């Protein structure tokens, strides 16, 4: 099953150079991930409030290929790069809604599953692992 | 004609107090305004690139009524508070998608129409004035 | 005692129109308030973690007088507009470091003191009230 | 010559998980880079306004080692990873002001020098190349 997130670039995403500020592309990646979790019935805010498990990002990377401007309509394609007992890595591709061959950005986020109080790694909840396995597999870069 | 914008609260909208950081609600207001312009066929980025007209915010206000958390699905109701030769004021109401009687925030933005090079007030383009007139009227606060 | 916060406008504060995105000025106001609390020995993160008291913003307003660009060095003058048992209102003025008569923005934030679990108003801690009283008084607008 | 940027974590940098939102660390990296340029007398906003040269980020990466909370005082150590005719790569390390052995984050940004109108690579201005050469060299990772 593929997961695709629709997004419109907003003025607040841009900077004085006229295009999207680089770090905001990572925020758009994370929005796609949040929407994926919601679609799978996983309540991120509930997990945070409960305080038993957190999924912070240990590492991320971003390649900017084509600048995006305010008003651009894009799709974010989400894929699973790796899944381990205590974490996972997702990859993202931002393409134009008008032409999916126009790729604006690619990147990845590596998440670790931790106990947020002790900040120690713990096993990834089964429901989350199962949901992630439904994603298309990314070729390891 | 009423204009309603759908939005989902993202983790990046929140802060360590667990709820949406206040200034981000104004950004959500502005997104609703941007989507309204796009729906009316007004190309905000085109206007900025052209450099003949800009619509900066001269004044804004925000009332926070009920905190919002990551994952909340809201609607933003847009209304026209006033329309003048060289500017306009919009009002916003953020309500829960599940129950529009639950109001999270209210506020307004007052825009002036300027020549961005000279930073002097100029007449609002007719197409924008016409589009704004299609919005429901807000009671002046 | 006056409290003045120094700040440099960053690229991430700006948008494609070339100047600071309006909502980010409110974030700069809040930074000044955070630095004031830190200077007074009040640990905002400690308060949040403890969970006994929170100081959310119930209302804010902003007047934009002169646009700011990336690299601008500004001062934020903080003043106390009102102090009540269960809340307070601060006012802010952003001026150029090179010439304090050049005012870029003015605004205010009204904070309520609440029990964050019950979301009910509670008395403002005495240490915070005392610190706020050390600020210059703003004329009520 | 080493370049060190002082920064205080703000509430707006954090998210509901209680710590700094990952993408905001990249924004802090970029602030350090902006301050370095300013120190070297390079006017980033002037370059953007002039429109002859832009230095967008083609690639960035981030490793999060230790979470940061609101109020934390950090230093960002800037180093030059590589310098080419038409671009450069910087590396960053975020450490605690109280103890520089406590490393919170490491990362890098790769910039390309372009003509912003044509979006084609051009030679890096000599003044910028010279300034970058004054930075300590990072070991290629």
Give the structure's gist in a few sentences.
The structure is a homotetramer of 141-residue chains. Chain A is α+β, with helices and mostly antiparallel strands.
Write structural notes for this entry.
The structure is a homotetramer of 141-residue chains. Chain A is an alpha+beta fold. Chain A contains 3 helices and 7 strands; from the N terminus they run βααββββββα. The interface between A and B is medium-sized, with 19 and 19 residues. Strand 2 (57-64) of chain A pairs antiparallel with strand 2 (57-64) of chain D.
Helix-residue proportion of chain A:
10-25%
Radius of gyration of chain A: 16 Å
Shape of chain A: globular
Order of helices and strands of chain A: EHHEEEEEEH
pLDDT under 50 segments of chain A (min length 5)?
Answer: none
The largest inter-chain interface, given as chain pair and residues per side, is: A-D, 27 and 27 residues
Tell me the total number of β-strands of chain A.
Answer: 7
Ends distance of chain A:
21 Å
Major sheet details of chain A: 5 strands, antiparallel
SS-based structural class of chain A?
alpha+beta
The largest beta-sheet of chain A arranges its strands as 1-3-4-5-2
Q: Mean of residue pLDDT of chain A?
A: 96
Number of helices of chain A: 3
* Share of β-strand residues of chain A: 35-45%
Oligomer: homotetramer
Which characteristics define this entry?
homotetramer; 141 residues; alpha+beta; five-stranded antiparallel sheet; two-stranded antiparallel sheet; 3 helices; globular
């Amino acid at each position: 099953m593929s997961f695709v997130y629709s997004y419109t670039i907003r003025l607040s995403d841009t900077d004085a150079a006229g295009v999207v500020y680089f770090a905001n592309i990572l925020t758009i990646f994370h929005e796609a991930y949040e929407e994926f979790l919601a679609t799978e019935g996983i309540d991120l805010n509930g997990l945070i409030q409960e305080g038993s498990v957190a999924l912070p990002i240990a590492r991320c990377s971003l390649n900017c290929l084509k600048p995006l401007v305010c008003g651009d309509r894009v799709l974010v394609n989400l894929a699973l790069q790796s899944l381990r007992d205590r974490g996972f890595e997702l990859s993202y591709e931002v393409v134009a809604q008008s032409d999916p061959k126009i790729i604006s950005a690619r990147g990845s986020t590596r998440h670790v599953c931790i106990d947020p109080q002790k900040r120690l790694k713990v096993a990834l909840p089964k429901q989350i692992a199962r949901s992630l396995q439904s994603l298309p597999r990314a070729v390891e870069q």
